[in-house]
């Protein structure tokens, strides 16, 4: 056993001091002071020492320190400084300044380093920083078809649900399958996440009572009160939608760009095309311009043979007509399609509607017919006076009116369908349509074609393409030109002339011209029913456009080929007739086209009919003929004035160029709408050729005829008045559109009978209004500048003044009566005549079905902010009675509550007795407030406008129901909707 | 713990460290002192001037508790696991400074600020003093418990370092030094480092033979200081700590920089910058010409994985320096060459007032900072909401 020995050794501080001397060499560095060598620097009272052994602490198991102590005591008599302690076994063995070198046992560190740390989480308490732990969960991937009640029930298992907010797509209104559910505690939310996350409803082992999106598992995560995750998700969805739209746009652009992908020399075509267009615009006479253009073509066309080969307008026929010219361009291009013009027109309208983005309104006659072309844009604008009309558009289907605000369309419908206004003296029906989305079917059609066009261009293709383009453009332009500049103006002028003349009392009779013979039987069997009917109806002033409208409608696009064929076949006949016009005059009366026109315009002309019928029926056509002829010449002269073309010749002869090849089967007739016959029928006044069908024995009396015409007009026009196919196509086009609301198996909601619309379905509807409200809010900002509420204010003020006066009058009456009673010795009764001043201040309101709930109240006039809207009238009962009644009503199945609490103990019950005020619906973002005011000591509930109320706005106020357990879902659809009434 | 499986752990990363967020802030962790009547207090000891602060914090070995000692002569025990305050104890008679857990989580050592300079061994559990360690003749400014056994060392203004054992009231060893020493144990418990301020020396002793000459003498010199002022302000070391892997020695200073040294050779490896030193107690008055301790001393420490240094700042920020990629020790260390200057990877906003005490929990991913208030910091592990949303939609979009 080695016994440690003590060897004295002085600590050598010189090696500690050494480095500091090195430092002094560094001139730039101030060296720290040198290590002190003198012992005076160190504490003097004690020397550095170490206790080698402390009996109280150290275990001297092997006894070697014992031995050492004994040894030291033996060897060193002055060992007191080394061995301290009292008595044996309590010594402390000191060592001074490293007298002994001794190995040490290496101990395990009790404070080891650590690379991995445990995760801890703190509960929320008053010391915690930041928001409390989330009590809400966000569930995604729920099937949109799951009803909210179902979802709610499913999640309610985990705890008390404080709020339940299913998210809906703001644009389509469909459920997103995302639900934000707030539980009362964090633990509940946590349990919910643990239990629900990753659950699968489909397939085996389904643990969910609700459906998820097929192939997906339910995802549930905690979300904070600020809904940050929900917002992030919605933002992300928005981004995606936008990107999708952008992609669609790019696609569209590419599709468009596909067309101009011409190689260099193809541009020439386009240049020429541009030139042509310019020409056509400069030239007033289309017929002339066409020929000019042709020559221009031949001059400038760089590849002339190609042109002639590929036969651009191989024959351009300027055909002078006796009344109005008719231009026919025969083109040997198989792909020419008749309705392309309307197609393009419609595209323009579509584009406009899409740009507007708000719901729009289409106009049709009350009887279901199409509006006549006599209606001008100004008329329409006047009709919509008071609404923020954005654009008035028209296509071949009729008028479309867009609005600056999204809800105007519906308002307009509500107000104007009430029948207070007429459009050009015709009562009309408005129908509201949703705007087409950007991905319209036409665009979809364009996409594949773009792919087609992006193929490599060969010379032949280029030529074809250019040709096609040019022809298309040319056609539309010509047509428009003729319509706008020549025929339209003339006709209108003529109409006004005639009207004036008529007003002056000049009887203008003229025959239905021989032009009628031009009208062809184009409708197959449709027109046959009146074949024998020799009715040539007096025409209202129809413009040429109208014919264009009637001729090609979507409904007939299907049998377009048939029409083409028909036309091709009939053509020669027609020609002949044109040539032999003078000779075979009587033929025209038999022409079935007469009926066609009649059908078309019957709806319009009905109004005039009665008046016209009173006029003496005109004699045979023979008698009238000269008059008519002269009239025709008149007309023609009038028309030729601005155009100044070759129509000077008064002869109605038609020169048909011999080179027309009628045998070519692919020939398509591009008939520019101003046709002779149409112009002939465009006579605004009852024509002399109008033979009385009653006299002919077709109808028994006027009434019969009236209804027959009505029926006819419906069959011919009713089916394509509303562009329904378009709307449905739009719906389909949106990939993430919700499933159509309801498919009516009987074909119509009206015939469907009673069916319940579930709450879930209703919420889907609500989104429409949400979107509207959103757009409306957006638009509202510039409004105050435009709408000056002054007139209404003054009117209301004068109204009040009047009311006061009236009240005063009544008061006087009462006083008088009182005086009389007193004089008669009776006790004066209380006021016998009462005057409700609130009644006079009531606004013009109307009730109608409401999207919010059953019936709603709508403003039929503009109401300024702060004005009284209506009083809430009902029986005033005590609260106790009200409670009883409420239960009674519930028992009786009166679901709606018409109880309005005035104060602690009074309630107004409007269930059985009341006024329109009870129909006002609740909204979380209302436009009115209910105030309780005291009028001569009686408390009244009065609804005041909280903001400007526009024409047709639904009147709403906040019901302020107390919070209850049984929630009443709110369908107000406003952006601020709380989801529940209570 | 009822659960059998080991709790989830995580390694510290830069992102994690930058995502540290105060999870708990204990606002009333220091009792407000009497209104400072400047006339009566100017004669008293320095640290009591200004607002009352927490002067020191200590974690127990398992990281379950943290102990704070404050100017208000209280020491409070907090549970790190639950994030709750569990106990407040008073040492009104002696004052309390330098609280240190022993290896038991119910007993602590602390230095006194009043009466005498005895180190006291206290049982939290029954609020009793178990032992007084008398010997120092002046204020104790450094106190460290051996990582391996019940020994501990203390440095005092009386220019001595004393070694102690919890079991014995007698001083187990004494080291005399020419100036106020700051002491530290290395992670193996075999080496002690003693920093001597005035001489800018750090002496490394073999614990078994500390009474002999130190086996390594490091002269701490920072050539970059002369760029700031001339003559450069001397470095005033206020704390010393070895990294748990034993490679580095962190020298905390009262100035605007801390230093990381190589613990084997003594080379200066990095200068940690980007904070305001705690030489002053409050922002505003300029520093004295002569450097002083100020309220520095507890504000900088290693994370237990030796990857990061966390430190406080006078403006209340908590800085995190990434010291994983320190340069290898050069063979011929040129003392004139500037050390690697490291800026914090994160300067996190915590509580108002200076962050005087910043320590990382030895076992949990949690950091404690203290000054006028005490804060528990946790890495914020909730991801970005946007990313979560994308994640939620991504899969739903897939199907």
From TrEMBL, chain A:
RRM domain ranges (all copies): 135-225
Q: Which CDD domains match?
A: RRM_SF
- Residues in domain Post-SET? 966-982
Asked whether the keyword S-adenosyl-L-methionine is assigned, the reply is yes
Q: Give the catalytic activity.
A: L-lysyl(4)-[histone H3] + 3 S-adenosyl-L-methionine = N(6),N(6),N(6)-trimethyl-L-lysyl(4)-[histone H3] + 3 S-adenosyl-L-homocysteine + 3 H(+); N(6),N(6)-dimethyl-L-lysyl(4)-[histone H3] + S-adenosyl-L-methionine = N(6),N(6),N(6)-trimethyl-L-lysyl(4)-[histone H3] + S-adenosyl-L-homocysteine + H(+); N(6)-methyl-L-lysyl(4)-[histone H3] + S-adenosyl-L-methionine = N(6),N(6)-dimethyl-L-lysyl(4)-[histone H3] + S-adenosyl-L-homocysteine + H(+)
Q: Which Pfam families match?
A: N-SET, RRM_1, SET
**What is the top-level taxon of the source organism?**
Eukaryota
Instruction: Return the InterPro entries for the record.
Output: COMPASS_Set1_N-SET (IPR024657), Nucleotide-bd_a/b_plait_sf (IPR012677), Post-SET_dom (IPR003616), RBD_domain_sf (IPR035979), RRM_dom (IPR000504), Set1-like (IPR044570), SET_dom (IPR001214), SET_dom_sf (IPR046341)
A GO term (biological process) for this protein?
Answer: methylation
Q: What is its EC number?
A: 2.1.1.354
Q: Can the keyword RNA-binding be found in this entry's annotation?
A: yes
Q: Where is the SET domain?
A: 843-960
For bias kind Basic and acidic residues, which ranges apply? 544-557, 610-640
GO CC annotations on file: Set1C/COMPASS complex
- Give the location in the cell: Nucleus
One molecular function GO term is: RNA binding
Q: Where is the composition biased (Acidic residues)?
A: 558-567
Name the UniProt key words of this record, in alphabetical order: Chromatin regulator, Methyltransferase, Nucleus, RNA-binding, S-adenosyl-L-methionine, Transferase
Instruction: Spell out the residue ranges making up region: Disordered.
Output: 1-47, 433-458, 531-660, 675-694
Q: What is this protein called?
A: Histone-lysine N-methyltransferase, H3 lysine-4 specific
Q: What is the lineage of its organism?
A: Eukaryota, Fungi, Dikarya, Basidiomycota, Agaricomycotina
Automatic annotation (TrEMBL), chain B:
The record's listing under PROSITE patterns reads:
WD_REPEATS_1 (PS00678), WD_REPEATS_2 (PS50082), WD_REPEATS_REGION (PS50294)
The Polar residues compositionally biased stretches are: 36-47
- What are the subcellular locations of this protein? Nucleus
Give me the ranges of the annotated region Disordered: 27-50
Kindly state one GO CC term assigned in the UniProt record: Set1C/COMPASS complex
- Keywords assigned by UniProt, alphabetized: Nucleus, Repeat, WD repeat
List the residue ranges forming a coiled coil, or say none: none
Q: Which Gene3D superfamilies does the record match to this protein?
A: YVTN repeat-like/Quinoprotein amine dehydrogenase (2.130.10.10)
Its Gene Ontology biological processes?
A: RNA metabolic process
Q: Does the keyword Nucleus apply?
A: yes
Q: Which InterPro entries match?
A: Swd2/WDR82, WD40/YVTN_repeat-like_dom_sf, WD40_repeat_CS, WD40_repeat_dom_sf, WD40_rpt
Q: What is its main location?
A: nucleus
* Signal sequence extent: none
Superkingdom of this protein's organism: Eukaryota
- What GO MF annotations does this protein's record show? chromatin binding
Give the WD repeat ranges.
133-168, 300-325
The entry sums up its family as follows: Belongs to the WD repeat SWD2 family.
Q: What is this protein called?
A: WD40-repeat-containing domain protein
Per the UniProt entry, what species is this protein from, by scientific name? Thelephora terrestris
